[in-house]
What we know:
This protein is α+β, with helices and mostly antiparallel strands. The chain has 2 domains: about 80 residues, no CATH class; about 70 residues, no CATH class. About 60% of the residues lie in helices and about 15% in strands. It contains 6 helices and 4 strands; from the N terminus they run ααααβαβββα. A 4-stranded mixed beta sheet has the order 2-1-3-4, with helices on one face. Helix 5 links the parallel strand 1 and strand 2. Helix 1 packs across helix 2. The radius of gyration is 23 Å and the shape is elongated. It starts with a helix and ends with a helix.
Amino acid sequence: xxxxxxxxxxxxxxxxxxxxxxxxxxxxxxxxxxxxxxxxxxxxxxxxxxxxxxxxxxxxxxxxxxxxxxxxxxxxxxxxxxxxxxxxxxxxxxxxxxxxxxxxxxxxxxxxxxxxxxxxxxxxxxxxxxxxxxxxxxxxxxxxxxxxxxxxxxxxxxx
Length: 159
């Protein structure tokens, strides 16, 4: 397994856990807003599939008489999750401007691998001659014709 495959799997797991926790926290916050005053009443509204960690937070807050902080905590967690999902950016450089359809294909492919929160930027650099350079986070895939021709040149010079 490559490092990028492992990172893709890790991001998918993190996104799934964040989504599940956020759903449970929002349900808990709604229960508190509706007047729930005990851990049992709040966890009943979260549903059976709520993560254990969120249930533990609700129980701790209830024991400390702080259930009223759940709506603010849910809002803060939602903002933190959104920031984490939007933190990853992709920069695509092509030799010529890509059509809207090709840009949409590239975006769909990258978001399928890195998550829906990925922000994608497109640039043009005619010196590439053809192909693309894709930068996502600290990963770079240089499939430009300029780089391939340079590799052929280097190979011929060393032979």
